[in-house]
Design a protein that fits this description.
195 residues, globular
Length: 195
């Protein structure tokens, strides 16, 4: 009888799966539509909530439906300085203010952004962890690209139609407090997975 390899046992799932029943759901920017491409869409922050297994809080933002008489709620990663009742604007013509979402070509060089799209319309891929942000380095108009500096220090060129949220992801400084004992590390990881 051979010995069961622990990594393979964990890979099979079963009791080694993530504890997801308390999670609020995927945190994404609102779907890219005509209103965002041409003008802007106004939303209201209804609530800022904790999401189990995520270091950053989530903002529940309510928008009007693009063509039906109803309201739709978007789950976005909260930015430092957001508060309930605040209006946020998404789109090409939105102004440069904390929490607003606009294409990289409308963001001046040197600005701090987060939750940046890697490909146009993917609803946010880069700089999403608590306290993270990207810096807009330069625009390349002939290639229609924008160069940004990622949290790792790497520089990357993206399509300048990719959207980003202005500001820093909330919940920064989370890792600065020492864990002090093994039990703290155990409970911190418990929300993530069985390990």
């Amino acid at each position: 009888m051979g010995k069961c390899i622990l990594a393979q046992r964990r890979g099979a799932g079963s009791i080694f799966t993530a504890h997801t029943h308390k999670r609020k759901g995927a945190a994404k920017l609102r779907p890219l539509d005509f209103g965002e491409r041409r003008g802007f869409v106004k939303g209201t922050i209804r609530e800022i909530v904790h999401d189990s297994g995520r270091g950053a809080p989530l903002a529940l933002v309510q928008f009007r439906h693009p063509y039906k008489f109803k309201r739709v709620q978007a789950r976005m990663i909260a930015v430092e300085g957001m508060q309930t009742g605040q209006f946020v604007y998404c789109g090409k013509r939105a102004e440069l203010a904390i929490g607003n979402c606009l294409p990289l070509k409308m963001v001046p060089e040197g600005s701090i952004v987060c939750n940046v799209e890697l490909k146009t319309g993917d609803r946010g891929s880069l700089a999403r962890a608590s306290g993270e942000y990207c810096i807009v380095i330069s625009h390349l108009p002939d290639q229609e690209k924008t160069r940004i500096k990622l949290p790792s220090g790497e520089k990357k060129s993206l399509s300048w139609n990719c959207r980003a949220v202005v500001g820093i992801i909330a919940g920064g400084g989370r890792t600065e407090k020492p864990l002090l004992k093994a039990g703290s590390a155990k409970h911190a990881a418990k929300a993530k997975r069985k390990c």
